[in-house]
Amino acid sequence: SAVFCATRFSRGRNYEAELQECRPEAVLVESGEYHPLKPIMVTDTKSRHGARKGSASSSSSSSSAPTDPLSSMLDGTDPLSMFAAASASEAPGLAQSASTGDLGRRRRDKEEELLGPDFEPWSCKRGEILARFTTTEKLSINLFMGSDRGKALSPGSAVSEKVRTRLEELDDLEEGSQRELLNLSQQDYANRIEELNQSLKEAWAADQKVKALKIVIQCAKLLSDTSVIQFYPSKFVLVTDILDTFGRLVFDRIWTMCSDPRPLPDGFTVDDVNDTAKETCLNWFFKIASIRELLPRLYVEAAILKCNRFLSKTGIQEMLPRLTAMIRGIGDPLVAAYARAYLCRVGMEVAPQLKDNLNRNFFDLLGTFRQISGESVQNQLVVQRVEVPEYLTLYSPAINWILQCIAYRAPESLLLEMMERCKTLGNSALLLNSVMRAFRPEFVAARATDFIGMIKDCDEAGLPKHLLFGSLGRSLACADPPEPERLTILNEAWKVVTKVRSPQDYINCAEIWVEFTCRHFTKREVNTVLADIIKHMTPDRAFEDAYPQLQSAIWKILEYFHNFSVLFSMERFLPFLDMFQKDSVRVEVCRSIMEVFLKNQVEPTRDPVILNAVLHICKTMHDSVNALTLEDEKRSLALLIIGFIRMVSFGRDFEQQLSFCVEARATFCNLEPVLVQLIHTVNQLAMETRMVMKGNHSRKTAAFVRACAAYSFITIPSLSNIFSRLNLYLLSGQVALANQCLSQADAFLKAAVSVLPEVPRSISVEGKLRSSESYLLDFINNFLATLLVVPDHPEHGVLYLVRGLLNMVQDYTWEDNSDAKVRVYTSALPLLAAMSQETYLYSIPKMDSNETLYGGDPKFISEINKLCETLIGQILDHLKALGRDEQSARRQGVLAFALFGVLLAHGDLRNNKLSQLSVNLWNLSHKHGYCETRMSVRTLECIKHQAQQHDMSHLTDVVQRLVLQTRT
Fold it and tell me: Which whole number is the average pLDDT over 242-253?
């Protein structure tokens, strides 16, 4: 390579002429011609009939525009759908031979459709019942320990012998071959029930049908035990899960017997059932009829109620009244109530249209209420130390379910009938509560005043009135009562709620009525409700046990109050937030408030009420950050705070805006992304100040801009992220330049150069260590572009910032085998070439750059050329070093081609030595064939085009000396 030595490195540039030369020629396009931005229209004219391939009827015509290759490949079809369709066509038999489980699942889905999505299924109530009805008392359970008689029968045994053996096994169960497990906790009890459920499935899978029946019978017998009466509703849920499993297994078995050779239709009749299936089904009912005890016989027969469809068209319709009558033989009213609930449940699944049976069960249940005051029940309650109100709540799940079934799509007249029954019944609180929860909220809301009157007349010894008002409040949260009655309703309800002594009972009811208050009233009424809640929940720190209810109250308020000026002007809102003392809960509440605020606060605000309240909420989130806080949590909180900062605007009161940023910096000093946003905000503020003032009050404006620069200069060093510091130093320096604050700009840029040695060789990006080299090169290129408009300081010599940057690059410890330093040198050459022009490519208004300061002084140009000579020498030395290693041939070629491009674009190739250097670089870049041929060809074409210009004819000689080479 030739050694570069020239008096002037760069050629003279006329940027305006070059811009005009590069502009494309305007070409008129007729409306009918294809345009790349016009949507592609494809017209498909395929025949609807299956024509032979290649026939005219199956051809397709399209517009003259080429079709989208992606669309044509898929032909508008999702590739996964195409795959599924192909699989189905290849294996048609597979789709037809669905498993029994799939058939059963589809069949159950079909049956559930009869009820509709507005009917809340039992599965949605299980979890609530299990969580509500708990106990710390010890429980017991009887496990079957029967013998294995009959398992060794030979395959040729007579049918009568098998039947007799199975009956003996059932007798064996009832003769006491059982083992009682005592002192079980509630969780142990649930685990034992689950073990029985698994045993049932395993016995069924092993074709041990009698053993499966024994398990179901003994589980059903558990429902006669009320020794731990508070747990009975949960025991009912666990045991009926096993009964449901048994019912499905029996039904699916008989269904399978009818599905050969073709599956039984969903709407099958008894005529579609073969004799074998009928006989098997009848056999199951005979087995169940042989159960001696009433309760297990009743429950197990109800579990397979659906199987009656295989035997008779009217079988279910006849069975339901019979089973309803059987329940009257159960002596314990609580046990009888849940038996009725189970019968209504299976009845709704198989015959939801049979409402008469539901009504009969309900009226029978009402008739048993008089037993509650009887000696037997009262003695039981005394022994177990259970009060009557607590005992009555045990009926709630059963009554609620039965009433839900009755009220499903029932006319409003039925509600009136139920209300009359509540009035005539002596102890109607329990029934009234269930009626309000079961019927449609619209019906209840329309008669809210009547319900309040009935609640007042209820006996307090039954259910507490606050529970009744809670049920009424749930309905009124979903439907609106008549407008003239709303204030009266709220006053009457709150008179009762505020007198509740137990903080837990109080908040459970008050939280429900918060929504009604927010829905229909103003901040005055809501503020009164919040004050009452604070009054009840503050003593003895009762709020610590009521965080879920308090959170729910906050969410309901946020749902209805989107005017945050109104919301935060409530005197008791922030004191209400102060009750959230637990860190995790307090932060979650503040997060919820901020999410709603950012979603609904569309316009920027300067409202002091909003700013003070939101600043307090954001400070609460910020102060929760500590050394153990996860990075994702920090990032999430920072985004919410940043959203708030962006919503704050004081208009043209720039000093107030800066004061807010100063306060925010002190408040959010632990969240670095927030500090970064504040610096951006201040820089934007400085730019807006200059644009708005437009020269007016220049001294005051300059002082304010300097204050903004001081804010950034003080804040940036506190950032831990090195590239955040570098980029913000550069950005702040650019803002200072734009505002003619040269000393501030100089300080920012020098600070950025001084930080460069601190850049580590690897940084963490999204939790992974990555090389910092590419990020550093991007920053340096941006920095170099800024230096074009930065005038030299009179006390620091020519190009002192450029030299300082290059010295830092020279001393920086780059990665081994890295070309980054040479890439920086190559990038610096275009900057130096631009600095040597008489007129710069870009400049800052009202600020003199070096083009004005030096005015093309020969000494200044000489300094630039010397620096260019030094840089090119360094680059050539590096290329020579790479040439000694065959493994570095590709790197050498890439760097040589990059330098060639710089010389071509910015160098004065009329200089023979510079021209020869460019040719040598071209040859070096192609020497080993690593240079992309397409790029080389395009470069030659560009040079030929430039050579045709009047002042670029010297390139003709250069292009003739450039030869394409390929690797041999």
Answer: 92
Helix (H) or strand (E) segment spanning residue 359: helix 355-367
What are the φ/ψ torsions at residue 648 (nearest 5 degrees)?
-90, 125
Say what the pLDDT of residue 12 is.
Answer: 81
141 DSSP assignment:
E
Q: Which residue has the tokens 């000696």?
A: 375
* pLDDT score for 677: 96
Look at residues 737, 721, 836 and name the one whose alpha carbon lies nearest to residue 779. Answer: 721
Integer Cα distance of 315 and 711 in angstroms: 86
How high is the pLDDT of residue 35? 57
Helix (H) or strand (E) holding 254: helix 232-258
| Alpha helix positions (H), 668-721 | 672-693, 698-715
- Alpha carbon distances (Å) from 775 to 301, 445, 672: 75, 64, 19
Query: Is residue 147 predicted with pLDDT exceeding 50?
Result: no
Give the per-residue pLDDT at 93. 38
Give Cβ neighbours of residue 2 (< 8 Å, ≥ 6 apart).
913, 916, 917, 920
3-state secondary structure of 181: strand
Using only C-alpha atoms, the chain has a radius of gyration, in whole angstroms, of 43
Tokens found for residue 335: 């046990």
The closest alpha carbon to 410, from 356, 363, 364, 446, belongs to: 356
pTM: 0.73
What is the rounded distance in angstroms from the CA atom of residue 296 to the CA atom of residue 218? 8
Beta pairing class for 178-184 and 762-765: unpaired
Cis peptide before 261 (omega within 30 of 0): yes
Strands in 76-138 per DSSP E? none
Lowest mean pLDDT among 229-238, 298-307, 478-487, 689-698: 689-698
Which conformational region is residue 209 in: left (phi greater than 0), alpha (psi within -120 to 50 degrees), or beta? Answer: alpha
Instruction: Kindly indicate the confidence band of residue 29, based on its pLDDT and cuts at 50, 70 and 90.
Output: low
Q: Give the β-pairing of 139-144 and 178-184.
A: antiparallel
In this structure, the chain runs to a length of: 968
Amino acid at 704: F
pLDDT tens sequence across 179-188: 566 678 888 8
Sequence-separated (6 or more) residues with CB below 8 Å from residue 188: 139
Amino acid at 212: A
Beta pairing partners, 769: 764
Q: Answer for the pair 581, 575: CB distance below 8 angstroms, yes or no.
A: no
**What pLDDT score was predicted for residue 30?**
56
Residue 195 to residue 634: CA distance in whole angstroms? 45
- Structure tokens, 847: 């600020």
Closest CA to 676 of 636, 723, 633: 723
